[in-house]
Structure formats: C-alpha cells, structure tokens
Amino acid sequence: MKKSYKILPVFLCVFFLAGLALRAQSTADTEEQKLLQVMHSISSHTLYDYVKELASDKYWGRLTGTKGFNDSASWVISHFEKWGLKPAGDDGTFLQAFPNPYTLVHEGCRVVLHLDVNGGKVEKNYHYYDEFIPGSTSDSGEVTAEVIYVGYGITAPELGYDDYAGVDVEGKIILMEREVPVSPNRDPELFKKWRPYSFHQYKLENAHDHGAKGMLYNYGPIGNPNNSFRKGFIYSHVGPAVVEDVFAGTGRKYQDVVGKIKETLKPQSFATGKTFTIKNVTEHFPEGTAYNVIGILEGSDPVLKDEVIILGGHLDHLGRCWEIMPGANDNASAVAVIMGIAEALSQSPVKPPRSVMFLCFGAEEQGVAGSDYYVKNPVVPLEKTAAFINMDGVGVGDKLSALASKDFPEFWAFIDRANQKYIHRLIRTSSFANIARPRLDAARFLWANVPSISFGASGGPTNYHTPGDNIDIITPEIMEDLAQMLYIAVLDMADEEKLDFRK
C-alpha cells in the first residue's frame, strides 16, 4: 500500500503535465487553423476581380503621370485604408511623388514602305500592332527618307566600334537593333564594357546626335515608354515583316549581317536604298509627376517593428499606344496579389512582429524609375529592410519562377517551406547576376544591397506589351497560390528573432 501512495503523486504530476502539453498542442493547432482559415480566405475570384478592375478601360492603361494611373492609385489606396494600413508616403499620404515626363500616343500613326514597281509608285502600309507599334516617346510628326541600317547604333571609341562610321544618316531614317552584340551570360566581363550602350535612351540620343530624323527600332514590335524624347525625332518599333522588306533586294541576308556583327564585333552598316515614311501623332508632357503607393502594416513587437519586409510590384503599364494597353498580367496581377496578402495580414489572428510594407511602384515601364527613386529616398532605412519580395507578371500560366532565390538560400527557405507544406506549386529557382540594364524593380534593390527575390509566372500567353495583355489571359489560380504561399512565408519571416539574409 505504501508503494502505491508513492506512485500516485508521480502519476498525477505526469497526468497534469500531459494535460498541459495537450492543451498547448490544442492551442497551437487552433492557432494554425485560424492562420490557415485566413490563408484560404485569399480567393482566386477576388484576385481576378482586382485584375479586372485595374485592367479596365477606365484607367486607360495606367501610364505613370496620367489621370488613369492616378485614379488606379486612388483605388488601391481606398483598399489600403479599409484594411487599416498606415500611409507611408509624403506628408501623411500613401503617395511618394517624383518627377517623370511622359508621352501620349494617339491614333493616326503609320509606317509605310515606298516602292517603284514597273515605273509606278506603290505604298505598302504596315499593320498595327503585329508589324509595327508607335514609339511611346516619339515626337509628333512625319518623316520620309531613305533607311540606313546601323546595326546596334553604338559609337564606342574605347571599344574600337562605331556603327555610324562610313554611313551618312543626316536627315535619314535608321534601322537599329536593340541591346548590344555581346551576351551578359556568355561573357559577363566583356558585357560590362558594352553595357552603357545597351540602354534604349543611349541609342535614341546617339541616333539623334548623328542627325537622323527617324528610327525603325527592331524591337518586337511591342510598346515601350522606356526611352528618351527628342524634339523632331520620329520613331516606331517594328518586327520581322518590316526588317525583311528593308533587307530584300540588298544582296544581304539579315541573319547573316547580325551574326557577323556578333562574331567579329565589327559594324556592318549600309545604305539600304529603301524609302520609308514614319508618322506618329503624340503629345509630350515634360513636367509629369509620378507616384509610388506605399502602405505599412506596423509590426507588433516594440523593437522588431522598426524592421520591414517589403512586398512590391509596379502598378503602372503603357497607357495608350494608340490602343489602350490593359496590362492585366503586366502588372495588375502583382498588385492584385499584393492586395490579397495585405488584406489577409490585416485580418490575421497573429500579428507580424516585424512591419510589412506594401509598395506599388510607378514608372517601372519608364526606366524602372519608381523603384530607383524609392531606394534613393526610402521611407524605412534600407539597412532596416530585411527583405524585398518583388512580383512582375504573375497572373498567367501554371508555373512560377523565383529569380535570385539561389543567391539568398536562407531567404528562399521560408518561401520554399510554405510552398512545400501548403501549396505544392512547381517553382523554378535561379541565380541573378544583375549586370544588364535594369528590367525589373528587384534590380534596383539588389544594387542597393537589399536581399530580393522576384517572382514571375509562365506557361501561358503573356501578350507582352501589346493590347492583348488583357483580362482574358489571366489564370487566377496561380495568383491565389502565390498569395497564400507568401502570406505564410511573410508571417514566418516576420516572427523570426533574427533575420539577416545579407550574409
């Protein structure tokens, strides 16, 4: 009997501790259930509706500087306010302003080839938008002249290279390639020497400085407002149909000429003998104002709230060129995902100890200018920015990519864990050298030493920078999966005692 009395207190103690453990486990299970309930509240239907709104005609393609962009920013802000986000822009607003010129493109643009056929004059008008798209920073006017092929349009004495040597482009129209004749992937060190000449702005300005009056830019054809404006300079983007007609009858094959430039790094410029007309109808606004939209969900921890995790993507698109460019995938899809996560975090039963910023950039399409301005004028010090998750074109397809994920394995581990546990979506990981001209907002943050991973989607038609990037191509399920995955990952990161991905 005495022995049994000794066992009883031990038994009761074990029973009591087991009960505490069960209650703790039950509490944890309940908390996870609540988190998952909020996660599943991020609905593909809601995200689709957000994209549909932003890609609608009422915002006229959201070109930064225009009323359409400003109205779309106001619409996003109305949701940020409803969810209790703190404004983090200028003077207590959600808007961070910066100067940004812009150009409107109107109907009436054309590209025409003039031919002599059997002693008569024939015009070949090219079709918008599969054969040409007006230059989004072209001046308004018309130019008719001979076309001079100038390769990549580069004048680089230190490289012993000049596409304009030996040809007279004064008053002429040039046909020019985009990028440079060397690859950043094949020879990064050589590419760095050529990099300054890869920018659209350099190419246009160099053509203008050489006296050219017009340009057929072999670029797509897609719309692109990322270029300079020069008074009196008329240009359009063209594709294979125009390029083939320029080369026809010259005794040269286009692929051979470009191949020889790349192989020898020697210019192959020549007068084509072809006469073209370029006409564009535009309005330029040199004093435009752009905005980033910035909202913050303040962290619950008195110390960690000074650190921030940023979820970002650009709100802007191309406006009209001359049709409305809806920009459903690029990049209303990312803004929709940002909004889905913002609402979920604002309703989460667990408040993130670190602050979370929701940052919708302006002027990404105009030289990645919004993110450039932000990193030079951050509202939270960059050294207090633990991570930046960028999204660009995340609304079409069934696969995700995570650019620079291999460069930040500890950062990626949070996202990968959330995906493996809850979402199970195929994600292609990669490194990112980031030595080419900036093509996405993450490039600016990486140059500023902010750990950054950038998401995109693939597996469907993107209709990149054309009127076809509309609500009809959107795959809402891919947005839902990404938003739910990042909701969990951000909560985990925000709760980590120490977060240092820079090492």
What does this structure look like?
With 503 residues, this protein is of the alpha/beta class. The protein folds into two domains: 268 residues, 3-Layer(aba) Sandwich (Aminopeptidase), CATH 3.40.630.10; 179 residues, Glucose Oxidase, domain 1, CATH 3.50.30. 34% of the residues lie in helices and 24% in strands. It contains twelve helices and 19 strands. Strands 1, 2, 13, 14, 15, 16, 17, 18 and 19 form a nine-stranded mixed β-sheet that branches. A hairpin with a 4-residue loop joins strand 7 and strand 8. Helix 9 packs parallel to helix 11 and helix 10 crosses helix 12. It is elongated and about 85 Å long. The N terminus is likely disordered.
Which descriptors apply to this entry?
eight-stranded mixed β-sheet, alpha/beta, 503 residues, single chain, disordered N terminus, Glucose Oxidase, domain 1, 34% helix, Aminopeptidase, 12 helices, nine-stranded mixed β-sheet
